[in-house]
Amino acid sequence: MELQKFTYDNRIARLFMNATILWGIVGMLVGLTIALELIFPLMSNNIPWLSFGRLRPLHTNAVIFAFVGNGMFTGIYYSMPRLLKTPMFSELLGKIHFWGWQLIIVSAALTLPFGITVGKEYAELEWPIDIAIALIWVVFGINMIMTTVKRRTKHIYVAIWFYLATFVTVAVLHIVNSIAIPVSFLKSYPVYAGIQDALVQWWYGHNAVAFFLTTPYLGLMYYFVPKAANRPVYSYKLSIIHFWALIFLYIWAGPHHLLYSSLPDWAQALGVVFSIMLIAPSWGGMINGLLTLRGAWDKVRESPVLKMFVVGITAYGMSTFEGPMLSLKSVNALSHFTDWTIAHVHIGALGWNGMITFGMLYWLLPRLYNTKLFSVKMANAHFWLATTGMLFFAIPLYFAGFTQSLMWKQFNEEGYLTYPNFIETVVQILPMYYIRVLGGSLYITGVILMIINLIKTAKMGTFVPTEDDEAPALIAQNHGVDKGHRVIEGKPVLFTILSLVAILIGGIVEFVPMFMVKSNVPTISSVQPYTPLELQGRDIYLREGCYVCHSQMIRPFRSEVERYGEYSKAGESIYDHPFQFGSKRTGPDLAREGVKGGPIYKPDSWHYNHFVSPQKMVAQSIMPPFPWLITDDLDISTTAKKIRVMQTLGVPYPEGYAEKANDDLMKQANKIAQGLRDGGIQVEDTKEVIALIAYIQRLGTDIKKVEGN
Amino acid sequence: MKIVTNALEGVSFIEWYPIIGLIIFMILFIVLIIKVARLKNNEVDSMSRLPLDEQDAEAQEIKQAEQ
Fold this sequence. Notes:
The structure holds two protein chains of two kinds. Chain A is mainly alpha-helical. In chain A, 66% of the residues lie in helices and 3% in strands. Chain A is built from 27 helices and four strands. Chain A has helices at 10-39, 52-84, 91-111, 127-149, 158-178, 194-229, 236-250, 265-277, 279-291, 297-302, 304-326, 329-335, 339-368, 376-409, 422-460, 474-477, 485-490, 492-516, 532-543, 558-564, 604-612, 614-617, 628-631, 639-648, 657-678, 688-698, 702-708; strands spanning 3-9, 180-184, 187-190, 466-472. In chain A, α1 (10-39) runs parallel beside α3. Chain B is mainly alpha-helical. Chain B has one domain (2-50). Chain B has helices at residues 2-9, 17-37, 41-48, 57-66. Chain B is elongated, with a radius of gyration of 24 Å. The A-B interface holds A 79, 82-83, 153, 155, 157-159, 191-194, 196, 222-223, 226-227, 230-233, 236-237, 239-241, 244-245, 248, 483-486, 498, 501-502, 504-505, 508-509, 512-513, 515-516, 521, 574, 648-650 and B 1-5, 8-9, 14-15, 17-18, 21-22, 24-25, 28-29, 32-33, 35-39, 43-52, 56, 58-59, 62.
């Protein structure tokens, strides 16, 4: 057999590696900043773009899409050519992918802090950036698929299946969840509303975890763990089953984010069942990863790379066991909306993604620079800082989660809530927030050590831009007829299509009934579209990221009905583009905020003063002030366009209402502002705060109109 | 919301899609398990060694030990 010569391009892997390190430290520092803001709410110093609600989406987007995203691309661009014995299909596509992705990250950093957001968690970026993501993602996909097509190995190694599944699934998730109608260049409304939007969003959100944070990293695990341990993977048969079972089951589990919400019970049950089933493939993968080290455990003692992989895979096992447990309704009743969720995701992010990335970097960089790691001691120190940092981060938040949830649910002997003031439950867990900052700081210190170590390593060696290799052409190796799973493995395009089918099924089973069966969203006749002023106010609510700390979903528990009012119904949010159920209660639920006589109602003047200074109204509050709402004028030039887009989406404003909307807006603004002025607050009708107050006072009032009748 | 529901209503037999999808997958999954179980061990072994550098002394050593 004639051997063909070819080269591997290390430059693209290095570019992605540098980006991983840069965005990693940036994303983590933003995380540390917002952790500090929860302890020192005045830290943002009245600067809008530093406020918690705007920086938190920046943190999650930076860590997920910039740090982990570049991390996966580093590993893929390094491992894929070597596994397939061919260079990547196109250097140009690789460069477009790299620079395009970095440009997307920069646009995220330039929009999210300025309140340009769709208001859907982990899918906050506005439509032009969404389109750019889709295009760049396709570039990445073409480059990968074409590389597999022109490979020189007969078999496509399991890591690459995970890469391909990542590509197809993320493409589907991103496109389906991001469909929106633009109002302007940087503002759009999602086509879905309320509970249906919630279902699509958590189908996306959960599978962003699955197919952005898990499958590509499992691919990296299947390549780099055998490499670092110099052992083949424990069971290749298990890896085949692991792959198909995982991608099929994951896609169904999204509704477990909506337990006890107004999502129909059948959909909730579906999410729970598939979440429990997910333990099997997840643990199959974990066992496969850990047992790859069989006979090499002595190496784990010495090699920081293997140590990090072991902790990373263990963290994967822990969080994939915890996830299904959290999806049990009884556990979820306790854990949901608390810091328990934050702890859970950080075991995944800091443990699984972080440790696998660091291990990969320590293994990869010396090879790219043809040298040895500058300091194994420093890398070991990093390992301990990262491991203890993760524990100091997560354990206090578990305590905070249990504590706060139990306090929310506690009744006294007279049958009243023991802690009726939400703030009492916040003050109780504040010490845990301090320890979280300590944990995060330890973790970041480790990353800084790593950066120094890697820079020193790079300086010691010389960069190897390309590596030569040789292998026989694929045709020369082809003899004999393929059977069974090998047929699929030999055909990357067919393989990709089958993966697509596997992941589409779960989505179709969930979505079709939700969108088709009318009884799933019972309409409530008194629920009316928002007034123009409320609609503008709602957009301010989205802009300020209120949803990252306040839910709008009262679950049907006695403790919640007592604290917040009547539980939320599916029919109440049918005009909510996007839905605002939220996922965390750092502050109280706002679903019935506007119900006069309700347990949580506050007058307009209270809200006004609270936005100026939350601490003036609730001394121990950890909410930041929003003084710019008082001084900034509401932009009403967009009202007509917004109403028209809402009409397109099926919101029943009367024909021709868009043109008259601003008249109604001014009338309602005048009424609210006059009320405030009568109470001695000097405020003009035109200020943003008036719109936000209008929206907040509308929340939850629709069904009360029926009761009034 | 109508914008999505209306689009789906136009598809004929849409109510059967989920059921057909589920059946397709169950069949594929069962076939997969059977096929994987019947894969030959030496083939699987060579696949699992793809990431490893064959020239590496230790890899060779393990290979020999296992043969």
